[in-house]
Structure formats: structure tokens, C-alpha cells
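To close the chapter, one final illustration. This time we ask the reader to focus less on the individual chains and more on the assembly as a whole: which components sit near each other, and how the overall shape emerges from the parts.
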Amino acid sequence: MDLEKFKVHGEPLIYGAMISIALATIGILVGLTYFKKWGYLWREWLTTVDHKKIGIMYILAALLMLFRGGVDALMMRLQTAAPEMKFLDAQHYNEVFTTHGLIMILFMAMPFIIGLMNVIIPLQIGARDVAFPRLNAVSFWLFFMGAMLLNISFVVGGSPDAGWSAYFPLASIEFSPTVGNNYYSLALQISGIGTLITGVNFIVTILKMRAPGMTLMKMPMFTWSVLITNIIIVFAFPVLTVALALMMFDRLFGSQFFTMANGGMDMLWANLFWVWGHPEVYIVILPAFGIYSEIIATFSKKNLYGYKSMVFSMVIISLLSFLVWAHHFYTMGQGVMVNSFFSITTMAIAVPTGVKIFNWLFTLRKGRITFTTPMLYTLAFIPIFTIGGVTGVMLAMASADYQYHNTMFLVAHFHYVLIPGAVFAVIAGFHYWFPKVFGFRLNERLGKHAFWWIIISFNVTFFPMFFLGLMGMTRRMYTYSEETGFGPLNMLSFVGALGLAIGFVILVYNIYWSTRYMPRDTTGDPWDARTLEWATPSPIPAYNFAIVPKVKSLDPFWESKQKNVPLYEDKITKIHLPNNTGKPFILGVIFFFLGFFLVFSMWIPAVVAGIGVLIMLGAMSFDRDEGFYVSAKEVEATEKKLRGETV
Amino acid sequence: MKIDASKPLEYSTEENSNKIFGFWVFLGAEIPLFATLFTVYFVMVDRFASGPSGAEIFEIGPVLISTFLLLTSSFTIGLAVHAMRLGYKKAMMFFMGITLLMGLGFIGIEIEEFLTYVHEGATLQTSGFLSSLFVLLGTHGAHVSFGFLWGVVIMIQLWRQGITPANANKTFIFSLFWHFLDVVWIFIFSFVYLKGLM
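The assembled structure is written out below.
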């Protein structure tokens, strides 16, 4: 076998990364052995089917990936901070912007949101778990192994380098001969299957497992947004599955889908990619809208203004999201009619989005507002996201788009949409729901410090890019000459990126500090909130609700607190829970190896791994999980303990 | 586990009925999957470069046999589910066995067909048209092959444990999958073979 193809040469930075990955791995292994935590890790985490723990693992993975993607971003900003920088070479720069995009969208934003969904959705609808707890574990491990597969590409064989959209013919074997884009097609495929399973799981959970009395129009807004998001997932991800499979066939087996000769068609890739890629934007943004809706209602002490119009505008956004994909390539040669059609559908999206913005503003009006950290992120989101939206309408106009297509203006625009629209939302949601999961709040003072660093630095980083784009700086250029005059604004942007890094460091430090020093919450409802998840004690017991609540209105928990009506009418009875299982984890590991062997065209091991996958699926079919019961007595004892009463 | 006797066995517990609904949602995802493959095929159908076109390689004979096999197997899996509801384990296993054998026959004919194409110099690498043809047919064929293995696993469980609520549920879901493959095949038969031969 040819060992050469596994090696990545030449860059001290990559050698540094190899050494740090090796050291970190050894450190983790030694640490686990020294503290005798292997059994704990296996029993409590690797084999868990509890939606809350799976959610926590998603969020941990997302934070890890936020760090990785953030380092990529800092490297890019440093490389372009001044003219003729020699920090990265062109190839390395290509790899860095490609993995930055992939990781931030697919392995940071999505898992963060899916993590929050996992933790919160069953609680918000008054259920004991998701519909298919074991399948939920399969989803997580497929996502995780896909993410790891993409991450090792940096040190084993080379990263993908054709941009996160991997346009053909650039991404073909002819122009990208390294294994980088093989990693792209396989890592995304594996985690994409996990996401699709999540989609099915949550649609069934939300439609079939709601507490008695919770009709569709009494669902909390976050639940609504997640339902719509998962419907988009189920319809959009199969397109990605096909696109990635065709890419894999082109690169590994020499088929002619996207080639320049023998009847291939490179534009077919661009179309397939964005038919998935644009709905994907809404997959990360709609749940964020849901999170903001919850936070605004809670901290304004009002119910959400225009609940029905909120729901309808999300439905309309989800439909339109499938009808706008060609606006990503107005300049790539389709006719005037096509461009006009996509121009109009794109601008139409601004209407339902505007409806939502006004609904949030009207919810705030005359509310008793408290400026907590999650609320601050929410309030900052509204104006910043509006800037992102308005520049989006500018880009939507096809004729004008010819002026700034593929410039830094576009880069500024989508960061102005995705960072407030997704990142601020998950941070806000993280601060908001943290006490629910762990039983104590994050420190408000540190939280606000981090907030101001992040908000100000965000604008310092990305606002100059609007001007850079209008000055003519194209995206993805790894360096420029001094005469272009791009230097000063790029330097400003780099300074902003450093500020953002400091903000995130404070945020992480806050988690550490709060874990050690914050007082424990025994009420289960530290924010005086409205929806059902706050009716459980914190941290949430394995069975979620001791008694399944009866829902009579929107915001049932608020109603029960205000009017003193009981949420629970039944008595505590024994509760049925599923057993843990190690099979989803093992399946994920086998998938990882299957992907790895395919990346390097090692056919025999790949076939063995493929058979391994089938055997695992068969073994899972033979499983008979009868689950186990928690006795009523045990439930009562746990409830009392978590509420701070003595048993 | 609460069993509701008023419903058919495969729907009898909440978990079972959720699984059936979940599988319908999954089939909802299979529709865009095959729709995308068909779209790719329609885009590529006239892009055969220097390779053969559909009319030059398609042969109606084997295709008719495999169509007959797959459509009939959809009928026999229906009979199997019917036998299951009546509680006839032997009849149920008999019809499932027939279904799987016909599936196997279908896969055999498809492999034979692929080998003939390759023999004639029409390979995956030859042209955009052939790439899309092989991947569309191959994806369907892979589904049938996977279904065959799945069916075998279910039959082993039926043989060992009899018609339990869990096994009934699995068989019913399997039958949904099998019918779905049949529907996809009808589209392939009409829009790939018949249209290609015209």
C-alpha cells in the first residue's frame, strides 16, 4: 500500500496540529484511565438513549467545532490582515476557508441547534422522551463520526480545498487530485444520514407525543419552529444525499456526472447543491427564530404577539426556501427569465421575515423587560439581523448582483445573517436553558461581559467587509497587493476577529466559573418562564415529568402559576424507560472506518466495514428492549430531592 | 407496554403505531431522493457523448420479466400481511418467502442486465447518460437487495418467536417499504425503459 497519500507535507502549522492532536488524544486516554472514568463514560454517555444527555453531547461537540472553526477564521483574518502576508500559502488558505464553512454550518450551527432541540422539545411538549430514543443515539453517533472524519482530513491526506460549496469542475478528481474532496463527500454523507434520521424522529415526536390538550396551535413557538425545520430536513437532505453520492461516484469510480467531457454537466452540481443548500440556511435559522420567540416572551412577561402569523410566516418561509436556490449563481449563465423568477422569490422571503420582526417588536412593546444575558443577545439580534436581511435583498436583485457577486460584500451579508440568526440564538438559548439542564444559572456579569465583547467585535469584524466588497475585493483571495488599498479595512477586521475570540473565551470561562461558584436553583424555574419545560425540577430527572401534564392553553405553566390551576391531575405511577445500548456507538465507529477506507479507495477493508454495518443493523433488529420501570416510590423520592426537600 | 386489542396487531402499542408513522415520514424522504435521481436522469438522458443511447442497449425481454416478478411480489407481500392479520404463521412465512425469492430473481436479472451493458462497452464511465442510468437503477436495486436482507432477518424472528406485536409491526413496515420499491419501479419501467425504447 502506498503510505505517501496519507501524509500531509510542508507546513509547520500542520505539524503543530498533528502534535497537538496526538498530545490531546494521549492526554484524554491517560486522564480517563487515571481517574478510572472508562466505565462511567461508557455507561452514562456512550450508551445513553436519554434525549437530554444526547443533547448535551451534541452541544459539547458543537462547542468543540466552534473552537476549530474559530481558529480557521482567525487564521484567515490574520493571513489577509495586511497586503502580501506570508502566514499561509494559497493551498493552505483554500483548505482553511473550505473547512471553516463546512464546520461552522454543518458541524457547529446544526448540532448546536439539534442539541437544543433534543434537550428541550420533549420537555416543551410534556413528553418523557423522543419517539425513538435508540434511533436518536444512532443520529448522534453518525453525526459525530462524520464530523471526526472531516476533522482528521487536516492531518491525514489533506483537507477539502474547493470551497464549502465544492463547485465542479474545481472539485473533480482532475482539478482537486488530493483525497480532500473524498473526505467532503463521505464525511457529509455519514453525518447527513444522521440528520435525516433526526428529522424523522422529531416529526413523529412532535406530532404524536404531545401532552393531552396540547393542540398544534397551543404548541410553544420553539416547538413549531423545530417541527417546520425537521420537515425541511426531510425534504432537503435527500437531495444532498444524492448530490454527495454522485460526487463520490465521479471521484472514486470515474462516472461522468459533473465532468467537462463525455456528456457530464458541471452546473448540475451547483443546482443540486443549492437545492439542498438554501433550505439548509433556514434549517439553522428557523429554530433560532423559535428560541428568540421563547426568550422575548419570557423576559417581556407577555405572551407572544401575533402567534398565528408567526406560525404562518414560518410555513411560508419554509415553502419559499425551496424556490430560491438559483440566486446563488445569477452570473453563471441562466437566462433573464430564470434570474427574474428567482429574484422575485428571494425578495418575497423578506415579507414573512419582516412579519416576524414586527411581531417580536410588538411583543416587547409595553412589556416588563428584564435585561438578562439571553435577552441581550435577542435584542441585539433584531437590528443586526435586519442589516443582514436588507443587504440580502440587495443581493437578491439579479442585475445589481452582477456588481458584487462573489465579493466580500456577500461574505459580510451572510455573516450578518448567520451570526445573529444562528450563533447568537444558540448562545442565547444556551444561557436561557442552561439552568434547566444543570440546575444553576450562568453568571450574569461574566455573561454580559462576553456579550459586549462579542457584539462589538462582531460588527468591527464584518462591517468593513461590506466596504471591501464594494471596493472590489473578491472573496477567497488569499492575498492582495498594497496598491489595492484593501489593507486598512482588513486589518480592522482582523482586530475585530481577535475581539470575538476574547468574547468566546470569556463565555467558556463563564461555564467553568459558574459550575464552581453559582448557587444551585431548587425552583426549576429561575427565569419565571412560561412553557412546560420549566415545570420540571432542575436538573431534569431521567423520566422528565413525574406526572404527564394536562395542557389547557398556550403557555400552560405560566397559566398554572398565575391562576393557580394545577398542571397535573393524575397520581404518580410507575414510569417505563428504555434501556441503554452500545450498538448505536459501535455502528457509528464502523461507519467512520467505512468512510475512511472509501476516502483512500481501500476497497477490501471498505467492503468488510460495509458488511459490518449490515451486521450491526441486523443485530439491532434482533434486539428486544423491554425497558425497565421506575417505581412510583422512587419517582416521589427523586422529585422531593430535586425540589430541595428532605426525604 | 399497553396493548390495544381493538387495533390490528402491528398498531397495537403506542410505540408500534409511532414506528409505522415514522416509516411513512421516512418514505416521505425517499420520494425526494428518487425524484432527484430521476431529475438527474432526465437531464442526462440525451448526453450519451460517444457511447450508446438508451434505445441501443435496452432490451424489453428481461425488463418485462423483472417487472412481472416485482409487481407480483408486491401482491404476495400483501397476502403475507393478510395472513398475519388472520394469525396464520405458516401461510404468512410462505408468502413472505415467495416475495423474497421474487425479489432475488429481480436482483439477478438486474445484475445480468448490468453485465450485458458492460460487456457491450456501456459502463458507468462511458457517458453522462450511462452514469445516471446505472446510479438510478443501482439505487433502486440496492434498495431491493437491502430489502431482501431485511426480509430474511424478519423471517428468522417470525420463525423463532411467532407473530408477536413487535414482529407484526416489523413485517407491516417491511411491506410498506416493498410496495414503495414497486411504485418506484413503475416509474423506472415507464420513463426509463418504455420511453427509452420509443
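Chain B is about 80% helix and 0% strand. Chain B touches chain A through 41 residues (CB under 8 Å). With these observations in hand, you are ready for the problems at the end of the chapter.
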